[in-house]
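I have been asked to look over a protein record a colleague put together. Alongside the sequence sits a line of tokens, each denoting a local backbone shape. Please read both lines and tell me whether the tokens look consistent with the sequence. I do not need a full report, just your reasoning and any doubts. I have pasted the whole thing underneath without changing anything.
>
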Amino acid sequence: MEGQDDDKLNNSIDGEFTSDQDELNKSTASTSSEPDAEKKRRTQTTSPHRYPPAFVNVPASPPKFMSLDEIMAAAAGVKNMSLAHEIAVDANFKLEKLEPSGNSFEKKVKEVVHKAFWDAFQEKLNEDPPELGHAVVLIQEVKDNLLALLLPQHVRLKTQINEVLDIELIQQKLENNAFDIYYYADYIVGILAKLCSPARDDNIAKLKEIKDIIPLFQEIFAMLDLMKMDMANFTIQQIRPYLQQQSMEYEKTKFEEFLKTQRESGIDGLELTKIWLKKSFDALKDQAAEEGATSPAMLTPAAIVNEAYVSLLSWDENQLFPETLVMDQGRFTDVGDKIHSLTLLASILLVTYSTVGAPIAGLQKLKEKLKSEIMVILDGTEQK
């Protein structure tokens, strides 16, 4: 029976099914006795109602699951692209030290850890004789930071630092009670004075006035942090012209990598951009219909893009920004706020001069005073 059912199903698929049981049995017998002839006959038979292959109606494969390394690599690429974009576009871009906010947990932990370290160092210094093992560790860290600040042409200075701040020699002096911590502190301050920018001269002058070891090393490390930030900003200024030349191709490459990662995850990386352009197209289409325009001149790609960019100036904060412009969202928001303020200012002045009329028409100082006071009010309102 199972063989008959299988042949019945096969005959049905080939369009050869018949309800006659005798023909079915005959077909079954023929299949068992003449398999080659049956195979040939079925190959040559064409069915007017061929069923589609099974895989046609199978849904697409599920999105590819990405590893953590792939996700982190994609995030790093976007971060680098955003940083390069800011450096190329913003002439005043500079790095600033990130300080924990007010009473944040991070700030409290940082203060507790630093206080514990310096208190432990102070206890060692108060011993008789003083225990200066902590000082060697600090000098090693200062040395590493100084070497990191040197430029390739500072060959002689690098050699000098390695000779004077030789940790093995310092350790030997410490073991033989010949270690003078003030000598090394003064030398470090002198090197900082040579390497720092003129804007840090006041900080160096304050360092030279400090005589206590703990406050001195605290200020030395604070000065090193400032100098590292200065060096980073100096490097940014130097590479900005070259980065501006290559930024377009670089951002294009990185964005293509981002889109590829999104596609592999089953995500449309341009979904918001398509929605943004579609809204502009619909707005122009409705406008053309209202004006009774018969030509498609208003629906050119340039017109759609222009309308789309204008819409960014009054963007709803609750909506996500288009992917292609998300790095410039802050700039568009600032421009939109300025346009809004100028619109309000012009409206207020127009209403004022239209209402009062001739008595204030020629008073230029009054107009300037009104403008300044209105802008102060508007700025205060926006900040709230």
